[in-house]
UniProtKB/TrEMBL annotation:
SUPFAM superfamilies: FAD/NAD(P)-binding domain (SSF51905). Keywords: FAD, Flavoprotein. InterPro entries: FAD/NAD-bd_sf, GMC_Oxidoreductase-Related, GMC_OxRdtase_N. Its cofactor is FAD. It comes from the Eukaryota. Coiled coil: none annotated. GO terms for molecular function: flavin adenine dinucleotide binding; oxidoreductase activity, acting on CH-OH group of donors. Residues 34-57 form the Glucose-methanol-choline oxidoreductase N-terminal domain. It comes from Brassica campestris (Field mustard). This is Glucose-methanol-choline oxidoreductase N-terminal domain-containing protein. PANTHER family: (R)-MANDELONITRILE LYASE-LIKE (PTHR45968:SF2), OSJNBA0019K04.7 PROTEIN (PTHR45968).
Amino acid sequence: MTHDGFLTTLTDVNSFDSPAQSFVSEEGVPNARGRVLGGSSAINAGFYSRADRQFFENSGLGWDLVSVNQSYEWVERAIVFRPQLRTWQSAIRDVLLEVGVHPFNGFTLEHKVGTKIGGSTFDRSGRRQLC
Ligand SMILES: Cc1cc2nc3c(=O)[nH]c(=O)nc-3n(C[C@H](O)[C@H](O)[C@H](O)COP(=O)(O)OP(=O)(O)OC[C@H]3O[C@@H](n4cnc5c(N)ncnc54)[C@H](O)[C@@H]3O)c2cc1C
């Protein structure tokens, strides 16, 4: 349930008390999924972003975008935090910019072309938050 336990959970799949179970995707990629209340959100990396607006427009479903935005705002008040970048997150940001993934959008929860710092469902003490 903490930042520090993230990798341990993924390397300790399938044991009796592990919240993670291994599987192989239809494309043949080895992966893990949550077998616990909260599902894979209980074992994931906690990266949070709003969807691309085109996702709603192209889905073929009649989304009520006012409700969608109100839902985003509720989730973001409840469980989304601005992350403190550690060494590896800073390194990935710098690598993306160095190889030309521009522009740099800074911290934003919106879906943006380029590089950005997104939200995290780990709070400031490193504890995972679930709805
Ligand atoms: C390692 C990892 C990192 C990820 N990182 C991110 C990230 O940073 N940001 C992001 O947005 N997404 C991330 N994801 C993806 C995201 O977590 C999943 O897409 C999402 O949780 C899927 O939700 P779901 O409700 O469809 O399925 P799940 O969350 O998998 O829920 C399925 C639930 O059903 C239960 N279940 C299954 N079969 C049965 C059964 N027969 N009987 C009873 N219960 C059953 C399972 O135990 C589980 O609780 C990550 C996923 C993984 C594995």
